[in-house]
Every structure is written in structure tokens, then in C-alpha cells.
Amino acid sequence: MSTETTPAEFEEHFEPIGIESELKKSYIDYAMSVIVGRALPESRDGLKPVHRRILYGMYEGGMRAGTQHKKSAAAVGDVMKNYHPHGDGAIYDALVRMAQPWAMRYPLIDGHGNFGSVDGDPPAAMRYTEARLSRLAMELLRDIDEDTVEWTDSYDGSTTEPSVLPSRFPNLLVNGSDGIAVGMATKMAPHNLREITNAVCATIDNPDIELEELLTLVPGPDFPTGALIMGTGGIRDAYATGRGSVRMRARVEVEETTTGGERLVATELPYQVNKANLASKIADLVNNKEIEGIRDIRDESNRDGTRLVIELKRDANAQVVLNQLFKRTQLQDSFGINNVCLVNGVPRTLGLKPQIVHYIDHQVEIITRRTHYRLRKASERAHVLEGYLIALDNIDAIIDLIRNSESADAALLALQKRFGLTEVQSRAILDMQFRRLAALERLKIQEEFNELQAIIDDLKDILADESRVRAIIKDELQEISNKFGDARRSEILPGEGDLNDEDLIPREEVVVTVTEDGYIKRVAAAEYRTQKRGGRGVNSGNLKDQDVIRDLFTASSHDWILFFTSKGKVHRLKAYQIPAKSRTARGVYIANVPGLVLETDETLRTVIGVPDLSAEGVNVVFVTKLGRVKRTALTEYDSPRTSLIAINLNDGDELIDARLTHGDDDIILVTAKGQSIRFHEQDVRLMGRAAAGVKGMTLSAGDEVLSAAICEEDGYLVIVTDGGYGKRTPLENYPVQKRGGKGVLTAKLTETRGRLVAGLVAQFTQEIYIVTDRGTIIRMDVRDVRPTGRNTQGVMVMRLAEGESVASVAKVRGEDGLDEDGFGEDIDQGDSPANNENGAKVIEAPDPDDQPTE
After folding, report:
1. Radius of gyration of the chain from Cα atoms?
2. pLDDT one-digit tens code per residue, 108-152
């Protein structure tokens, strides 16, 4: 029997179609499958399906934060089995990336083992590595068990998976995303959690917030690898339209070698730049003679950070070489922002505010659904407790009813009919244990019922008031930000065509303080008020235990600040680049201030404010602990290099002080044993930056130079001991000598008066700060320090508390000091030695009748 199909039967069962239309339709279906199911992140939780499935699979598999790490293969296997029907390699690659701190701004996987490197090294096989969810990833899944999201069937229908995560922080903005679909792609930059949190909260408070205000809260992306962002034009375009280009540049310092040469040191690289490939590219350019001046490249990176060292030839210009590297290598790179994500399953390009708005809408839904769930659970429990209370009020009748019932079902119906109970309440009563009949148990039931009624009322109020829902979003998001937020890593610098930040900074007098433990801050001079000798003083900083203020000076906010270190190096910043803090704040650790990168055994010694580094006729005089001096022209430090050798030191010596001179100044040195010497600066010839200097003073055994100062006409040498005693002696009492001598006696030191801690030159009309080791500061006129001769002990200038001692002394900038009426709020001059209501430390005033002791 023939089974061939006749043409008539063929036409009856099949409909002919054009191959062109079929291919087009099939390709569109495939493209949408890739777009929606693989490549693009969701606007609500910022995750692609594979990442969402990995996180949820690990959550369900018990690989949560705080638990023991488990094999990555276990996570991959569970995800592939239950949720993601693709190859294990794709799943493991996605898992690995979520654990890499150089790839994710805030990693979502806590990896244990070899998860690759920034050099592009592959991770170990999944059978070797271990993983668990990070603590922050748990916030993406928080409340997922409270009916907050929709669920869909898995690929085989055996289980369900969330269609989106609750995402209690804006993961899309915080971690960004990167993916290539069919006919479209996405590349979203990571941001700082604290900044994004502030922007979300501001948008909740003001739904009509403008982009300009958001830009003040989110200045730009914050990449995991830090580095520099050059210019804000591309950032603004991306935030306004969803597309823009951000130019990134490596953080490169120019260092001077001990042999007088120079090196370039890259400590932070642009985001997604492979360090090994970068070094190889530089080597190729050098070998091909496309870049001249480089003699060696080596990678000194370790677990503490990146350090790519480029050694230069002696005749090379560091800035020229650096500019060539920026132009030809990925030391400068671009990040093309393309904010494409899924909104209700449709790809859309979003600016900054739309992303924030979609996230807020998602959170409103999450909180609303969570509140409905909690209200339902609380109402169900209250309903059962209400039945318990009815049963306890009629316990004898209920017991008799149950005893006389033929069966449990009959008792169930009888309870409902006689006492008006529901089936749920009746079953709960039948299941109730006899111990619940005790009087104390009844009290507990009543208390629980009352608490649930209050909770129910509160939950209903939340659902009735959208402002409360938004307030809850703000509070919970701020809690996450406070717990997991950190400081910005990527520094944003003005680019070509941008307004320079310096143009927007007002010129004002500021006070800069540096503590012994390395905390630095800038405070407006107006926060300190003028006081008389023996005044109470104000608290200059909330210092850590055993920390003291070791350096304090004043400057204009636009001055150059030169930081001279114990190793004879110098760093420079503008005063406004030093973090501004309140008078009572501790400050910022020096390592967190860009441009102040010190070695582990290197400390700051002297800080000088200079309006113009190119000023002719201005010199810097250096003084070392062992009495050597050196004079160098200030113009030697007008260089683009950020790390310079200021003076070469002999073994065992260190830099003590550095002072500006103008060619015809006298210099006076003061030693710890009370000796001083005054000599003319012309006795020290001009030398280069790398010179070691000449002998400035001959020291006795065990003595060392304490400070140096520039003599002034009609000036006084002000001496202060750690016991709070001081004096001012006219400079005319100090004869001009040749450098290299032992000098003359300048203070008669005794055990009761304390050791010498400071010697400075000041005018009669000037003011000084005196700072104690507990952070108390007093500002007073020099005229209030009693004048005495050289061979004297001085008088009390500051009354100290028991165990307190003077740590440092500094002049207030300005010829006549500041307003004698003082600045800021007056401090109560009462007799109480305790802290006053303003929070300022106070000290007893010394007896004004104290006389100088010869």
C-alpha cells in the first residue's frame, strides 16, 4: 500500500510561506531571546538572568554570607540543574566576575581561592575554588521570602525562580553592567554607593529634582580600580541622555631615584585595563623606538596595590614621556557609557534620573508587597489569638463540649456554631495544649494579641500613606549605605574646556593642622577666636587616644602647600585640596589625601605655604637634626613632579625644618638643650635640590636642633617649654655669628619648667597658637608673653591640666594677627574647669602676677 502524499493532501496540511519572511521572523525571535534572556540587565535589580540565577541558587543552596565557603562547582551545578540550562563554563565565568574586586565596584560573591587577576590570569577550576554570597549580596535578596517579587517557572517546570530580586540597594547604578546583545549593547558605569544613596534619597524628597542638583550628589562614575577621570563633559552627556564617553587616566607619580634619575610609577590603572598587556604594549613601543626615554619596565604590584614602575633615562623629560604614554597606551583610556537596560521587558536607554526613578518605583512595590505580606501574617496570627482568648474565657464549656462530641469533626462544627468561631480558630483551639490554660500563659496570649494589634494598625497606616513607604525606603537604603559604603576611589579632574575648580573656590584664610598619627585637615581661620594670656582655649580636634597635634599653620586657600618629610623629600598641593573639616573634627588620614603618598617610615616635618613657586629671589633654607643647613632657590620646586628630593641626608640624620628666605635674612637655630645661633643666609651658598648642605651649628653631645626661624626687624624669639612656661627675648640680644659655631644660651631650663618644645620668631603685634598634647589650643597675643633676657626661665603662658603638656607652637598668619575681638562664639569665662556647653576644652588661667625668674 502506497504512503505517498498527493499534491492535494500536501496543500491541505501545509501552508507555503516565503523563506525571506520566515528567516526575518526567526531572527527577530532569536534576537529578542538574547536581549531579554541573556545580555541586558533589568532596570530594577541591575542583573542579567544568569547573575540573578547564580545569586538565588547560592541563596537557596545555603551558600550565604556568614556560612562556610563551599565549592564553586556546587553552586554551578545547582544553578545549571535548576535554573540555567546552559554550559557550566558560562555560569562559572559569571560567578567569577562577581567575585573580582577589580571588576565589580562592590563584589557580590565572596570568593576563596584563585579567582584570576587584574593581569588577565584565568581563575582556577571550579572544583578548586570556593564561594559564598557577600554580605552586600544578601541585601539584593533581603525580603525575598515575604512575597515581594513575582515568580516564574524554571526552564523544565520543576521549580520556580524569581523574575527579579528585591534589590534593596540600586545595584544597576552601583555595580554597572556590560553586555552585547543582537543589534544593541550595554555598558553601564559603576558608581559610589554613598553618592547614589544620596541621589536616591534626594529624588524621593523631591521628585522634580533637576539634573544639575543630581550632579552635585553624583559627580561621576567611581571605578573599582580608582584612577583619574578627566573632564565632566562626557559624564554630563551620559547622565542627561544615557550615552557619553568618560576619559580615564592612570594615576602616575613622578619619583626621583636615589641616583638623581626619575621614574614613573602608576599606582592606579583605568577600569578594565589589563596590566600585563599594558606593560607589554609599552615594551613594544620602546623596542620599536616609538617612545624614547624609557630604560626599564617592571611590575612591583602586590596584595597591597598596583605599582607599575617605568624607569627613565637620565636625559629623559618625565612629562614628555608621560604624555606620549597617555597618547599611545591604555594609561589613558575611554569608557563609552551606553545605559541600555530592560524596562518592563523592553530595551531602553536611560539617563541618571530615569534609572533612579525606576529603582524607586521598584522599591515602592517591594515595600508595599512586603507590608501586605506582613499584614496578612499578623492578621492571621491575631485571628488565632482572638480564638484562644474566646476559648480561655469559656474554657469549662469548651472542654465539656469537646468531651461530649462524638468526633473531632463534630467538635469542630460545634465550636463554630456555639461560639461563633471560624474553622481556623476552632482547629487552633482543638490543637491547643493544656499548658496554655495556665494563668501566665493567658497573660502572654493577651500581650501578644495587643502587640499584634499595634503592628496591624501600623502596617495599615503604611499602606494608606505613600510618604511612609518612601520614608522606609530612605531609612533602609541609608542603613545599607552606612554599613557598606566607602570613600570615592576615582578622582575627577577638570578636563580641557571645563571650568577649573580653582576658579570657584573663594580665597580665605585657613588653618591647617597635622597630627602625630598622620591626620590632616583644613579649617577656616574664623573658627578660632583671639584670647588673652592665660585664657581657656578651644578644642582644636577630636583626637584619638595618645595622638597630638604636631603641626599647625595658616595660609590662603589658593597657596601652594609644600610638605617636607623626614627623609628630605617634598610633596606639594594647593591648600584647598586639603580636606576641609570642622574645628573639632579629627581630620583625614594623610594616606587618603591625593598627592601625599609617604613611605611607611617617612613622616611630615615641615609644611610651608607659598603663593607662587616661580617667584625669583626666594630661597628655601633646610635645617637637619644634626645641625646641617642648605639653601636652594624656590624655583627649583616649580616642577610637574609630585615627589622631589629636597635635600640629601647623611646616615642617622633627618630633616627638622625648612624656611623661606629672600637673600638678606638672618637665620636663627634653637636646640633642645637651650642653645641658639644666629647667622646670615649668605653664609650658606645656593645649592641644587639634591645637595646635602653644610654645617650650620656645632652641637654638644646628646643635643639636636629643635627648630629654625628667620629673624625679623624688631622681632622677638619666643620660647615655650612643655610645662607651659614661655618668654620673648628681643632678637637684638642674639649676636650675628658665622655658621658652624656653638652659639649662645637662649633659655635656662629646669626640671620644674619642663623641656624646650618650641622656638619661633614673632612680632610684638602678632598672635600665636599654643597646642597641648590633648588637643587643647589657645590663641594669644605675643605682647601678652612677658619679655625677659636670654638666660631666664620665663613665666607661665598657659595653665595645664594634670598630666598635660605643650606639644607645639605656631604663629597666626598676618602682620597684625586677626581681629582682636576674635572669631566664632565666645567661650564662657567661668571658673569651671570642665568642658563647657560648646564642647571646648578649658584650662585654668595662670596668675597674672607671675614674675619672670632669672
Report:
1. 37
2. 999 999 999 999 899 999 999 999 999 999 999 999 999 999 999
Q: How many CB atoms lie within 10 A of CB 300?
A: 10
CATH number for 286: 3.30.1360.40
Cα gap 477→463, rounded to integer Å: 19
Highest mean pLDDT among 56-60, 404-408, 424-428: 56-60
Nearest one of 80, 93, 132 to 110, comparing CA atoms: 132
The pLDDT tens digits of the residues spanning 751-790 come to: 778 888 888 888 888 888 788 888 787 888 888 888 888 8
| Class of residue 259 by CB neighbours under 10 A (exposed 0-12, middle 13-18, buried 19+) | exposed
Whether residue 117 lies inside any domain: the answer is yes
| Distance of alpha carbon 533 from alpha carbon 332, whole angstroms | 57
Are 120 and 268 contained in the same domain?
no
Distances (CA, A) of 849 to 728, 799, 802: 17, 14, 22
Do the domain assignments include residue 398? no
Known catalytic residues are: 128
For residue 434, which amino acid is it? F
Same domain, 633 and 757: yes
Q: Is 472 part of any domain?
A: no
Bridge pairing between strands 806-811 and 767-772: antiparallel
Summarize the confidence of residues 829-834 as an average pLDDT. Answer: 29
Look up residue 660 and give its three cell numbers.
Answer: 623661606
Here the CATH number for the domain that contains residue 113 is: 3.90.199.10
Is residue 163 located within the same domain as residue 305? Answer: no
Q: Are residues 163 and 255 in the same domain?
A: no
Read off the C-alpha cell for 377: 501574617
pLDDT at 98 over 90: yes
Residues 579 and 726 in one domain: yes
* Residues spanned by the domain of 748: 507-646+653-811
- Number of Cβ within a 10 Å radius of residue 314: 11
d(CA 695, CA 514): 29
Angle between helices 72-82 and 88-97 (to 10 degrees): 120
Q: Is 440 exposed, middle or buried (0-12, 13-18, 19+ CB in 10 A)?
A: exposed
Q: In angstroms, how far apart are the furthest CA atoms of the chain?
A: 138
pTM beyond 0.85: the answer is no
CB 530 within 8 A of CB 584: no
Q: Identify whether 840 is part of a domain.
A: no
- pLDDT, tens digit, 9 for 90 and up, residues 672-725: 888 899 999 999 999 988 888 999 999 988 888 988 888 988 889 988 888 888
On whether both 132 and 275 belong to a single domain, the answer is no
**Number of separate domains in the chain:** 3
Q: DSSP letter at 331?
A: T
Cα–Cα distance for residue pair 655/624, rounded to 1 Å = 4
Residues 606 and 719 in one domain: yes
Query: Residues 403-420, buried b or exposed e (16+ Cβ, 10 A)?
Result: eebeeeeebbebbeeebe
Say yes or no: 154 and 290 in one domain: no
The answer to which of 42-56, 249-263, 439-453, 520-534 has the lowest mean pLDDT is: 520-534
Question: Of 142, 168, 194, which residue is a domain's last?
Answer: 168
Element (H, E) at 574: strand 569-574
